Amino acid sequence: MTSGRVHSLESMGLVDGPGIRAVVFLQGCALRCRYCHNPDTWAVENPAAEVYTPGRLVEKLLRFKPYFGEKGGVTFSGGEPLLQPEFLAETLDLCRTAGIHTCLDTAGCGLGEYGPILRSTNLILLDVKHYDPEGYRQVTGGSMAAFERFLEQAQAAGVPLWVRHVVVPGLTDGEAHLEGLERYLKTIRYIQRVELLPYHTLGVHKYAALGIPYPLEGTPPMGGKTLADWNRRLNKTCCEKEYV
């Protein structure tokens, strides 16, 4: 029987896709982003994670339906949800059968074959770490190849995208960087929305608790208003349509 490891559940997510969302945070991530605020999700085999079967998880998610109703749904996040592909695919399929709108919040770094997952995904919240391989490696410590494989399959499947990009002072900010991001996003189809996310330090305390050095120690958080003009510009130039 397929089972998966769940870090945590949130019943009323407001920034994880359209409407009010139940959010499932799956355990495990292969990337080591310098600004990651959830280092406690990195290890798939974390003993603190709760083990679910797809049926048991969807049964629990259905209890949240009075909150998310018809305009919301369920978002699968992480960690990186693609690292538990069989469990994710079966759970998404059960959600689809139950008439639940599904979002996949992902950096696109899974195990390579995503057909069964994409068939039951209504919307992808795509975390674009960087638009060129060297910059991607500087941000994540890994290769961009896995992301490109996922994006290729998502484009072939025609799944709508909300693109997210974290803007970090000295790493992924500045006019030249954002102009490069704009050029890159214009090559991607099915984008409905672009969200530039300002760097924050809300997860720094977790590094201390885990005894892990924080890679961006001393980098100040950003105010959201500094990105307002660029958010408007990218949504105007890179989106096929706004999600309704």
Could you describe the 3D structure shown?
The chain is an alpha/beta fold and 244 residues long. The protein has a single domain (21-238), classed as Alpha-Beta Barrel (TIM Barrel). The protein is built from 9 helices and 8 strands. It has an 8-stranded mixed beta sheet with strand order 3-1-2-4-5-6-7-8. Helix 1 (54-62) crosses helix 3 (85-97). The termini are far apart.
Number of helices: 9
Arithmetic mean pLDDT: 95
Number of domains: 1
Biggest beta-sheet profile? 8 strands, mixed
Radius of gyration: 17 Å
Strand arrangement within the widest β-sheet reads: 3-1-2-4-5-6-7-8
CATH topology: TIM Barrel
Q: Based on DSSP secondary structure assignment, what is the total number of beta strands? A: 8
Structural class: alpha/beta
Shape: globular
How far apart lie the N and C ends?
38 Å
Question: Per DSSP, what share of the residues sits in E-state strands of 2 or more residues?
Answer: 15-25%
Task: Tell me the CATH superfamily.
Answer: Aldolase class I
Name the CATH architecture.
Answer: Alpha-Beta Barrel
Q: What are the secondary-structure elements, in order, as H or E?
A: EEEHHEHEHEHHEHEHH
